[in-house]
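W.,

You were right to be curious about this one. When I first looked at the sequence I had no strong expectations either way, so I just let the prediction run and decided to look at it fresh. Below is the sequence, 82 residues in total, followed by the output.
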Amino acid sequence: MTRDVNEALRAIIAETFDVPVDVVTDDTVADDIDGWDSLSHTVLMIRIQNAFGIHIPEAVAAETATVGELSAAVAEIASARV
């Protein structure tokens, strides 16, 4: 499931910021992508929550620095929901 979550998450990020999906790696941080600021981060979190049918606590959203960390958090939250 983690791999599927990672691929889906990378696709959501790529679509949100209009970048090629191969630009988004596990090591990508917000500063690596033009336009990823606090407002667009909120939009991204809403899109992720809607796509996975989960709620991401604000603390988790703030603590995840890389896409890989965010992916792991989303996978954990989604698996706890099942």
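Here's what jumped out at me. The chain is about 65% helix and 0% strand. And, maybe more interesting for your project: The longest helix spans residues 2-17.

Coffee later to discuss?

I.
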